[in-house]
Amino acid sequence: MEATAIQITLASKPVLILATYLSPSRPLIGTDLTDCLGRGFPVLMAGDLNVKHVDWNSRLNTRRGKPLHDYADANSCLIFGPDSPATNPYNLSVIPDVLDIMITKNLSFPVYLTSCSALNPDHLPVIIDTLCCLSFHHTPDRPDFRRTEWGNFQTQLEELIPFNPELHNEMAIDTCVENFCGAVPKVLAVSTPKRRPRDDPPPLVPAGIQDDIRLKNRLQRQWQITRDPTESRGQMPSKIGDPLTQRVEKRPMEHYTRIPRS
Fold first, then answer.
1. Is residue 163 a part of any domain in this protein?
2. What is the bridge-based pairing of β-strands 2-10 and 13-21?
């Protein structure tokens, strides 16, 4: 199994996030799963392991599916798959299915998977959403470039960079470019005030819009499986997609009009 991992802080706890891949020609080894999931702290592992099981929304169970299902049950892991297929084969004789899955262990917050059907590759990307926000012990201030003092920026930049330098050879040119590239961000940081980032989380998608999104995904998945010409893709945007897009685009404006401005 191939895996790339990073460790971040979520809900004030360390969380290991892994991107994994298992080739169809390689076996699923329990020790590899333990190396990824048995670290002693919360883990979120996602990727294409080429395993199928109906419990994570695949069409059928494969030979690898049952061992992974049994491993998850024995080691207190949860396995999730998107509600709609993550594959969109160019070969119409191949039925779309769920291959990309997510395995979690000891997570204290919910996670949600959605196939990104807006793109059209043969292997759709899967978006992982969580209600948990990144947490830091000291959230750093951010520069407010709308209030940059450009007069001060120009004055200090002129002091650091010599006017009309002598550039007689390649080394002198490289040195001048290096000095310029180093001086610009330094002077910009001095000339730009900082502001505290907002602590309030972004608004959640209302339940009604979430229901419409699930309905759209379910109908699209049904069409991908049946390929029924009477249920073509072209009919879906006019009945569900367009009104849904309008509601999603309209809602942020309604939300921001309720936020008091300073």
1. yes
2. antiparallel
6 and 52 fall within a common domain: yes
Residue 231 confidence (pLDDT): 59
Task: Check which CATH number belongs to the domain holding 10 and give it.
Answer: 3.60.10.10
DSSP E strands in the chain: the ranges are: 2-10, 13-21, 43-48, 77-80, 100-105, 111-115, 126-130, 142-143, 194-195
**pLDDT at position 50 over 60:** yes
Residue 38 falls within a domain, yes or no? yes
Does position 162 have pLDDT exceeding 50, yes or no? yes
Instruction: Report residue 183 as tokens.
Output: 């001086």
| Run of H or E including 210 | helix 207-226
Shared-domain flag, residues 11 and 34: yes
d(CA 52, CA 99): 7
Residue 164, domain extent: 142-195
Question: Is residue 10 located within the same domain as residue 87?
Answer: yes
Task: Give the whole-number percent of the chain exceeding pLDDT 90.
Answer: 10
Total domains present in the chain: 3
Which two tokens mark 23? Answer: 């080739």
What pLDDT, on a 0 to 100 scale, did the predictor assign at position 198? Answer: 62
- Confidence band for 45, pLDDT divided at 50, 70 and 90: very high
